[in-house]
Amino acid sequence: MPATMPRYPHIIFDLDGTLIDSAPAILASFRAAFAQTGIAPAVTIDESVIGPPLTETLQLLSGSTDPALIGRLAEAFKASYDGDGYRETAAYAGVGKLLAELAGAGLTLSIATNKRIHPTRLILDHLGWRGHFTHVYALDLISPRLANKAAMIARLLADQGIAKEQAIYIGDRSEDGESADANGLPFIAVTWGYGSLNADEMRTGWRAAAQPAALGAMLLAD
């Protein structure tokens, strides 16, 4: 454990594109859902659609907001992904070591993800990471469902009595940075994931880390 605790003892992570490469599993399950329901996708199913909540993504892919149609697609997706599909998820190289290092330094690690809570827990168990995280939040963790990621982070902070001055959010998309900003949290964008921010998307005060080792150094030095 470091001689002095880092400035941000509470580290909140996004999941998809930040800690894990879930693209192969997610895209395969989206394709399976459309094939099984006989619905033709309105846009290409590729990595650009990964990140938003399931319902929002299915609306984009189907070109429809019809509740019955989206419900059929959602059930088909869940059957594929929650069955065996999630097992195709891989950790980004160096992330497992990063999490062990941060937890070993006495920092409190949490997840705030747009992914549903059930597959999130399945993936954490699959990767052997459940013990690293003190808190795991998803939009559907609470009923009624949380409105968005900014609201989810706010709920996590309030539930756990975490002062915003002691927390930091780590993600890979502009939505993540905006959600951190909405809660008065500093933000570090990881640039190894599929949601990597380019220079034009970075805002004043946001920082970037190109490798897990670099992110660890930043968090332990803060």
Key phrases:
2 domains; 8 helices; two-stranded antiparallel sheet; 42% helix; Rossmann fold; 222 residues; DNA polymerase, domain 1
CATH class value of the largest domain: Alpha Beta
Major beta sheet, strand line-up: 5-4-1-6-7-8
Termini, distance in Å? Answer: 14 Å
Nearest-integer average pLDDT: 94
Number of helices: 8
- CATH homology group of the largest domain: HAD superfamily/HAD-like
Q: Determine the structural class based on helices, strands and strand pairing.
A: alpha/beta
For the record, the CATH architecture of the largest domain stands as: 3-Layer(aba) Sandwich
Largest sheet: 6 strands, parallel
* SSE order, one letter for each helix or strand: EEHHHEHEHEHEHEEH
Helix content: 40-55%
Total discrete domains: 2
Percent strand equals 5-15%
The third-level CATH topology of the largest domain is Rossmann fold
Radius of gyration (Å) = 17 Å
The backbone outline, from C-alpha atoms, is globular
**Strands, count:** 8
Low-confidence stretches: none
